[in-house]
Specification:
Layout: H1 29-40, H2 43-49, H3 53-67, H4 79-89, H5 95-115, H6 117-133, H7 154-225
Helix pairs in contact: 1-3, 5-6, 5-7
Length: 234
């Protein structure tokens, strides 16, 4: 997977990192200043994405509010990828096309061992469709570029989401196979029960026939014993 380089230009020397941890709910002024310093070294990438520094701050503020009590460390983020993610969230011109062009091929290759060539293409393209729809749907959870925080590269973030989707697909296939196996077993059981019922009916009919035959034989025997003996007199 392609890994976008981190932009570290403009990082002040000697910082302890304590001020680089945001407080819950909102980035503080020290963090906003540090983000500006980092973004200064990524000016070309931001201009290419049509994103300014304030948009990056707004993106991270939104993520901080979503995280609530989990603070964001802004000292080592992939700011170029953050700019790209923010541009996609804003539906900036060309942002989605570039995201797909840069990541679709590697993602399809990653999905092929589990999905096969054709299904891998379907799965990856469907993921991009769902990802784009997430801009207007707050119920999509982790598959949402507004929740991309830049801790990993954007390509790695997409790869992780794809792996999660593949795991779900595999679980669905296993459940379907298990259901089909249970249905097949149920059919075999019903067939066995039907055969057993027919066998019992045959045994019952045979027993009834034998009983009738025994009664008939007994009746014939009684009839013969009741006949009077003929005495021949000379």
């Amino acid at each position: 997977m392609r890994t976008a380089p981190r932009c570290s230009a403009g990082r002040s020397a000697g910082r302890t990192g304590y001020d680089s941890v945001a407080t819950p709910g909102q980035l503080d002024s020290g963090q906003r200043d540090e983000i500006r310093r980092h973004c200064f070294g990524c000016g070309d990438a931001l201009r290419r994405c049509g994103v300014n520094v304030q948009r990056i701050i707004d993106h991270l503020n939104h993520l901080q509010r979503c995280r609530r009590r989990r603070p964001i460390n802004v000292s080592r983020l992939h700011y170029e990828d953050l700019a790209h993610a923010a541009a996609c969230v804003d539906n900036a011109s060309g942002a989605w096309a570039r995201l797909i062009a840069e990541n679709e091929g590697p993602l399809i290759q990653a999905a092929q061992p589990q999905e096969g060539t054709t299904q891998a293409v379907v799965t990856v393209r469907r993921m991009f469709i769902d990802l784009r729809r997430s801009n207007s749907d707050d119920r999509r959870g982790s598959l949402d570029l507004r929740r991309y925080g830049g801790q990993t590269s954007l390509s790695e973030w997409l790869h992780d989401r794809l792996m999660g989707r593949l795991a779900v697909n595999a679980a669905i296939r296993r459940a379907s196979a298990a259901s089909a196996d249970l249905q097949a077993r149920d059919q075999r059981l019903r067939l066995a029960m039907e055969l057993l019922h027919e066998e019992r009916m045959c045994v019952q009919r045979l027993a009834e026939a034998l009983a009738q035959s025994s009664e008939s034989i007994a009746a014939n025997a009684c009839g013969k014993s009741a006949e009077p003996a003929h005495v021949h007199v000379e």
